[in-house]
């Protein structure tokens, strides 16, 4: 017997009301999924309209569940609604960086998993099997970004088992594309090991030093409000459209929930352990006491037109006290496929069609600064870009076409404060931006054009991303990789000792910067921002370590650069900085791996 809803003299079958809501929600979901990232104001308005419809739909099916089931509603159809709501939450997180939406996405995905919405008919219907695989792939991404590594490993095993079962059940389908997805996440986890996640990459008020930089000598104080993150290398480690380098930088630019959400997991830091830390509170990953995260746009293989549209939109909306961080990691040499043994790409080519399917989850005046080399004009930069390969390739067609980003592409946007990080073998060409800005001097952190050879056999065989990016996001681990320690046999107390020592050095360096009379305003105006300050201090450490590392001692190609220049008291030749490197090396018994330009005693 069909159920009816009566109103205004008309009687409408309850199932018709339900399917009408489903169709309305589906249409709105398709529209918001296809909105480009640079239409942010349009997206904000549309999101709440879509979410309102799905809220109505979810509430309606909850209140009328039994009647709808009697009318023919299947459990997998309920799971489909829950999955769409989880996708909306995750997509909104990716556009706003509000961790609350990420947590809500996890809650809905976890409910789908525990209530087994897609289990009924899984072995008989190929369509339902694909829905379950798609759900697991999306849930994996949410858990990865949220830091739920134990759940990630659990889902990976379930994902692989389901693929094997589907291959046996549906023999006419080879599930090749889903096997590629499984290979990607397995490769990602082999690269992003427990050692690389001993502690959260996010900024933690508990674990990161509470830097008291005093009052910087700056006419204004800026804060990081937005970031664009983009990384592309041929056959690089990634999962879906999130590359390993972008993932680490994404994590590095977020607040870690404070309080007692983390605890140590024992005396050993095993490379094959499921995780380096254990979450105590697994349900609530939000912390209302923390400031909002900077908004981040993660772009994978963007065309230059799409990249510039996103960049222009963010610059247009940047608040008066805001800074935009621009992180670009890509090769700049024709035919170059990797930056270093850390970023060697060794997996066969990947088919993208089904990845694209589940990736819809993301809802898609010149000056001469004192103390620095005078910048080139925009015309000179453009001519240089045309005459020689001097950009970053974000596609498979090399340094040509619509996928190459040149320094001259960024200059028009220097009317707003930019904090630019370039991780590339052609990073040095971007130094020409310094002096060619159109209103605001840009802050530039440039990677070495060559990365030093690594001693660690395990990490040269198993790619782990760019060493420069690791120094900026996990400096102690980067130091260990450089001297040949992969963490499999390291005692936790040794790592913690090194962490504490580096924190003390960073505190000293922050105070030195704040008190300096020669610090360029570009740097002094960002010292109050915890994310940018931490990146700058880690850069100082990275530059000093690579400058004194014996295998590449005095080799400028292995040295990172920053523009404008920092005070002489913090360059690698400064005794206090050299002493810091030696003390870090002594913790690991590796002082012989570093060379000093002059004899000094550890301060």
Average pLDDT, rounded to a whole number, is 82
CATH topology group of the largest domain:
Rossmann fold
Helix content: 40-55%
What is the radius of gyration? 26 Å
Which percent band covers the strand fraction?
Answer: 5-15%
- Total domains, how many? 2
Q: Could you tell me how far the N terminus lies from the C terminus, measured between alpha carbons in angstroms?
A: 86 Å
User: What is the β-strand count?
Assistant: 18
| Overall 3D shape | globular
Largest sheet: 6 strands, mixed
Q: How many helices? A: 20
Give the name of the CATH architecture of the largest domain: 3-Layer(aba) Sandwich
Record the strand order, biggest sheet.
11-4-12-15-16-18
Structure explained in plain terms:
- By secondary structure, the protein is α/β, with parallel strands linked by helices.
- It has two domains: 14-193, Serine Threonine Protein Phosphatase 5, Tetratricopeptide repeat (Alpha Horseshoe), CATH 1.25.40; 223-257 and 289-334 and 391-593, Rossmann fold.
- It is 45% helix and 11% strand.
- It has 20 helices and 18 strands.
- It has helices at residues 14-33, 40-63, 65-70, 75-96, 99-115, 126-146, 149-169, 176-191, 244-252, 304-317, 353-359, 378-387, 407-410, 457-461, 467-473, 475-483, 492-515, 521-524, 530-548, 575-587, and strands at 4-7, 10-13, 203-204, 223-232, 238-239, 242-243, 255-256, 262-263, 268-269, 278-279, 295-299, 322-330, 392-393, 404-405, 418-423, 443-446, 490-491, 561-563.
- It has a six-stranded mixed beta sheet with strand order 11-4-12-15-16-18, sandwiched between helices.
- The longest helix is centred in the first third of the chain and has 24 residues, at 40-63.
- It is globular and about 85 Å long.
- Mean pLDDT is 82; it is low at 259-283, 335-389, 457-462 and 599-603.
- It holds the Pfam family SCAI.
- GO terms for molecular function: transcription corepressor activity.
- InterPro entries: SCAI, SCAI_metazoan/Viridiplantae.
- This is Protein SCAI.
